[in-house]
Amino acid sequence: MDSIAKRFGATHALKNVSLDTFGGETLALIGENGAGKSTLMKVLSGAHAPDSGSLMLNGRPYRPLKPIDARRAGVAMIYQELNLARDLSIEDNIMLGCERNHFGFVQAGLQREKVREALSLLGHADLNPQRRVGSLSIGMQQVVEIARAIVSNARVMIFDEPTSSLSKQDVQHLFAIIRRLQEQGLAIIYISHFLEEIREIASRYVVLRDGQTAGSGSLAGTSDEQIVSLMVGRSVANLFPTVPHSMGDVALSIDHLTGAKMPSDLRLQLRKGEIFGLFGLIGAGRTETLRCLFGLDRVRRGSVQLNGRTPPYRPRARIAAGFGLVSEDRKGEGLAQKLSIADNMTLSAIHRYSVGGLLKLSSRRVAVDTWMKRLSIKARHPEQPIGQLSGGNQQKVAIARVLHQDASILLLDEPTRGIDVGTKAEIYRLIGELAAEGKSIIFVSSYLPELLAVCDTVGVMARGKLREARKARDWTENEVLSVAIASENDG
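User: That's the sequence. What structure does it adopt?
Assistant: Structure tokens below.
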């Protein structure tokens, strides 16, 4: 890709970006949210046409007009949000769009052979091709997506944040697959915000910043600090900034809380100004705990007292009492993708601007502008649809919503998933500032370094139970994992 430029209206998404990659290697494409990574890859995969610049594939001019052109030329993109038909079988999904037919009749035997070859190459020859995709784990669904690319004879494969929803075990399985693809001579472009992952799987890197190439080179001779500096355009001395704060009286008391499925007999006390981290393997019950606290999931028994009172188990009542939830599913339930930034930010406290059933838009605009400035949300204007923002800026809007509603108990479910290190540092600092203001925070994360660095207390969940909680400084990563794994095995 040579001198690629792309603009959307007045926004220059890409400015003369160049990139090359070779068969048998994994190239890491790094940058903050909104840096231009996805736009560049959409140009490569045929979703966007460049305004200027040229592309060469296998030494020949290459200019796809649409994604199917790129697929046929050998370029496949594995998106963070998997594109699968959940109600169809594995075989049907893998062959979708590239069915083998003779005079209009599907050649079922030939298709089945192709599917088995692809699954075998990925180390999953035992997977039943007739199984419904919706019954698979996220990790196995990703295998199906990759198999589909293999069947279409892909020679360049792009992975866009592929591990954001995977367990540690699934991540290692994915890396084994990527190494197998490299051995087959495929060129891999790997987009991720996790620098430790990038170092494990890639050999070279390209950093984008503000739609331009900020730097490139061998990962072997480049430190994390140098890469982060290229990403954000300044030196970042502390990737986990903390704000001094102290804990006060008990704000939230959870006693024997048991949900319809999870949690089970959970007991926890959360103090004012405390950041309580919750860790656990997938299925441990962390998200279910937050949903019960917020009134989204049914509670079978137990009590939740906020400042000595028990608000009804309904989201509206919980919001009124001071609970604020930032969902792990930003796209599905955390934000209304077709509504504006202003609408999303004020939905949970819209009554503040309502007079006689009409909205006072001028007052709302002042409040929204204030929060956009405080959280450094990058957007053209408050009325811009939320779906047009980068993932990091969408996440800031989701957090701004619970701050705007003035929540005193913040339930943050994977608040830094899928966002860049610069934005993560901003969110860590914001969490510390909120604790310093006396707000109480439950911080759910699958990324142990941030929990141990940012939280005051870290608890480990397994099978719906809170197995152990200690001061963050008293844990090591190995100890946390040992408790989580041992508890899962013990049941």
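The chain has 17 helices and 24 strands.
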